[in-house]
Amino acid sequence: MKHVFSKGALLLAMSALFLSSCKKEIATETSATQDEQSIRKADADRAVAARNASVAEFEQAFNAMGADATARAQKNIVQIAQSLPIFKSLVAAVVKTGLASTLSSASLNATVFAPTDAAFAKLPAPFNNQQNISAISDATQIDALRNILLYHVLGTEVRRNQIAAGRSFASTLKPAVISNDNRVYFSNTLGLLLINGNSLVLLPNVDASNGIIHVIDDVLLPPSRNIAEIAIGNPAFSTLVAALVKTNLAGVFTGAGDFTVFAPTNTAFASLPAPFNNATNINAIASQGQIDALANILKYHVTGSRYFAWDLGFFSSITTIAAAPSNKLTGILGFDGGYVKGNANPSFSRITPANILATNGVVQVIDRVLLP
Predict the structure, then answer these.
(1) Which residue, of 43, 166, 226, 337, has the greatest Cβ tally within 10 A?
(2) Per-residue pLDDT for 249 more than 60?
(3) Is residue 20 predicted with pLDDT exceeding 80?
(4) How many domains, in total, are found in the chain?
(5) Strand ranges (DSSP E) for the chain?
(6) Would you say residue 239 lies in a domain?
(7) Cα–Cα distance for residue pair 223/196, rounded to 1 Å
(8) For 295-316, b where at least 16 C-beta lie within 10 A, e where not — what string?
(9) Could you tell me if 83 and 167 lie in one domain?
(10) Average pLDDT of the chain?
(11) Do residues 260 and 327 share a domain?
């Protein structure tokens, strides 16, 4: 009897120890999740603060240029750009492309997103400064520059407060050559306005006699490739491309559409078990069950509309095209990055680089595969 009691007592003690261990493990995982959420939220808060600081700093610098707003409003768009020391590259580009008369027209009534000299300096030569732009003689480069400038112009006056909250888009004066290559996309969140995910409106509503100017910190470049072409052209996505081909999803991203693809790199796929861990193994998959599972995982990386990093919010729920109910991602905004997490992922995946604009959507590069 003593032996039975001791054995029972031992089992109870082991059960209690096991339950205690499970509770500690759950508590540890919960604590780790909460810690990561706090860290990611702090990252997002810093991104918002940094962008607000940039806007405030620029507004102060702009006001110090001494131009009287009332007097400035009597000038046309080109005259205003010529009168300000921050638009030398823009003025050179307008002159070089023969658009000065168009943007000076009294009947224009347009909206111009005007990149600063610092914005042009981020471009490769010969588009990076006043001197190089003025020296361009190649007709193809001049035509490309003209289309880039027209991509910064809306055909009507749109003030800052007329741009809808959240996500929206507008068509520019750039002639459409391929699908959606003349549209700009707005992320109007937390009091800040970004265009195509990367260009911040530093100062809105600079009135001109023939329109309105919004000053921006990045030159807007129209997309020239679709999502499939972007993936195929980057060797870091060879596993993703193999998976899209194997599941017959590649064709979805070659045509028209508005998608966001959270695109795992080869390194991200390498952390999965075989046969999903590299292009060679994926190409060899013959099991329809595995192909179907892979297809659903890929769909879990795709949304049916464009999300730039600034659109991801604070722990917002993002609906993918995967089968419901396991079709939601969790997002955290960022300026030149951000974070996203699948239901079964223990931690967030970092988005970097972010906001790769395609004719049929946006590519957000991530460092781990998202699991529903």
Answers:
(1) 226
(2) yes
(3) no
(4) 2
(5) 110-115, 153-154, 166-171, 183-189, 192-195, 199-208, 211-216, 259-264, 302-303, 314-319, 328-332, 338-341, 349-351, 356-358, 361-366
(6) yes
(7) 10
(8) bbbbbbbbbeebbbbbbbbebe
(9) yes
(10) 91
(11) yes
CA 357, CA 240: separation in Å to the nearest integer? 18
User: What pLDDT digit, counting tens, does each position of 322-331 carry?
Assistant: 999 999 999 9
289: its two tokens:
């069950």
Domain that holds residue 303: 227-366
Sorting pLDDT into bands at 50, 70 and 90, what band is 335? confident
SS3 349: strand
Contacts of 285 (CB under 8 A, 6+ apart): 246, 275, 291, 294
Residue 62 structure tokens: 């702009």
Mean pLDDT of 180-200: 97
Same domain, 76 and 193: yes
Q: Give the domain CATH number at 180.
A: 2.30.180.10
Q: Is residue 175 assigned to a domain?
A: yes
77 and 168 fall within a common domain: yes
The C-alpha torsion from 254 through 362 and 179 to 296, rounded to 10°, is 40
Same domain, 249 and 359: yes
Q: Are residues 171 and 144 in the same domain?
A: yes
pLDDT digits (tens, 9 = 90+) for 147-174: 999 999 999 999 999 999 999 999 999 9
Answer yes or no: are the C-beta atoms of 250 and 241 closer than 8 Å: yes
Looking at 216, 244, 268, which one is the last position of a domain?
216
Regarding whether 311 and 203 lie in a shared domain, the answer is no
- Does residue 186 sit in the same domain as residue 254? no
The whole-angstrom separation of Cα 272 and Cα 369 is: 8
Q: The tokens of 317 are what?
A: 């729920």
- Please provide the size of the chain in residues: 372
Q: How confident is the model at residue 31 (pLDDT cuts 50, 70, 90)?
A: low
What's the whole-model pTM score? 0.89
Q: How many CA atoms lie within 13 A of 211 on its CB side?
A: 27
Looking at residue 29, its pLDDT comes to 43
Cα atoms in the 13 Å half-sphere on the side-chain side of 249: 25
